[in-house]
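Team,

Forwarding the record for the chain on the shared tracking sheet. I've put the sequence and predicted structure together so nobody has to dig through attachments.
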Amino acid sequence: MKAARFYDRGDIRIEDIPEPVVEPGTVGIEVAWCGICGTDLHEFMEGPIFIPPCGHPHPISKESAPVTMGHEFSGVVYAVGEGVSDIEVGQHVVVEPYIVADDVPTGPGDKYHLSKNMNFIGLGGRGGGLSEKIAVKRRWVHPISNDIPLDQAALIEPLSVGHHAFTRSGAKAGDVALVGGAGPIGLLLSAILKAKGLSVIVTELSSARKQKASESGVADHILDPSEVDVVEEVMKITDGRGVDVAFECSSVNKVLDTLVAATASAGVVVIVSIWSHPATVNVHSVVMKELDVRGTIAYCNDHQETIRLVEEGKINLEPFITQRIQLDDLVSKGFDTLIHNNESAVKIIVQPRIS
């Protein structure tokens, strides 16, 4: 089968590799669509980061580069391994793409996403969504309704990132939120916030992303920091109080500074983006306003609720897909576009198998 294989920084190859073996306790999935994530771009430009370098296998997967990429994917079950009785061939599914030790519990309240040596399918090994097929352990496979188109279902993984950030924030219906950055995660997080009954203010420079925030309906107010004083405008919108909760989705220090300044006393600032460089924060403001500054990573028992929101029609994922490409065009029409011309794209999804 065809697969996108990461060898080293700047070196991703579309190759023929053996189909996966559907072992006991696993589910064989024919991949329908797979999204390109910002993490994938960082691996391509700066990696290996999450991907274990060649000759240095991951302690759980026992794999190192080259590995098959892709962790945002949907598909159709084509086989079930021995011992799997609650998944059927033909079911539509998405995957919570974790690699954690087998003895780590994943029930309610278990913080498995913070377990030792945690990594992700499609980065740390165990196949990936940028291939025609994959075999995944049952506990990471989530059935979805056939009413959700499979191309949209590929966005449930990044949508779950947004849901986990919302959960970490402690926000509730009626609160006002400020989202700093309207890239894919910022937009999908905003969709979660709207579905949960919050008012959403988005701050963004990019005209394409501002347009997407507007046409998708995920923002009540869209502020461009090159045109307005964001803190001043937020105070006008909130009658001088500031927002209840703010989400940093840009890895830009100036955005973080803006969020701290625009958040009301006793409010919460959640850092969602992955930072590859040190940051500063106005500690005096954090102290004097008794702000909570929290981190969030990935998801933890968030997929079920995220899927429910989509199945009930509370979130429409279609507007966020801007391009659909084939696996052979992954680098030329996918990575190169997102790296060099990201004004033209929000979320690019890839079809590994030609229908």
